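S.,

Sequence below, as promised.
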Amino acid sequence: MSLVLCYHALSAAWGPCGLSLAPEELERQLAALLRRGYRPGTVEEALGGRRRLHVTFDDAYRSVEAAMPVLERLGVGATVFACAGPADAGGGPLEIPELEAEAAVFPDEVLTMDWDALRALAEHGIEVGSHTVSHPHLARLGDEEIGRELRESRARIEDELGRPCRYLAYPYGESDERVRRIARDTGYAAAFGLARGGRPDRYALPRIGVYRRDSPLRLRLKTSPLTGARV
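The prediction came back faster than expected:
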């Protein structure tokens, strides 16, 4: 089975926020997984192969650009999931209640990539996927609102980057049967959440979230074949 990791920001300066870790910690974690026999892979290789490793970053924080040298040194493929709304606003912060306190104390850390930055990632071989327009709790929305969030974000990414937007990551890792049906109907090739029970399908693909609190032992347990989520 393959392993897909979910990161957010890469900044040692972002205080105690659990969403952020230092670039050198990312390199240590990925190198350890490669030593355990995982091989770098694209999204499709991870879905169809054994012991493939793929890295994802949700929210497209500007600090994720610090991952690029790490990924290049290790040869690990990655997908960045971006919200179209903040990118349209020139790379502003996500306007969500969950980040209000962090934005007040660390305003620069919550800034996201604009279209130019996302375009540069794509040109360097990074997959750019959709994280919706505005990062809502999708299951709380009506069908029409869900469809608009998914269709418009995909269309904006494709228009700006000039390439297909094939993959979706659900905000907060949340979805239900209705959300997954709409994700399929709006044309995504696959959609990711976070670790969950049951047998995964292409619109409920599990990832392992990695956070600042994850010690080497904790991360090893989370990525163990016996306890971790696999695709």
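The longest strand covers residues 52-58.

Coffee later?
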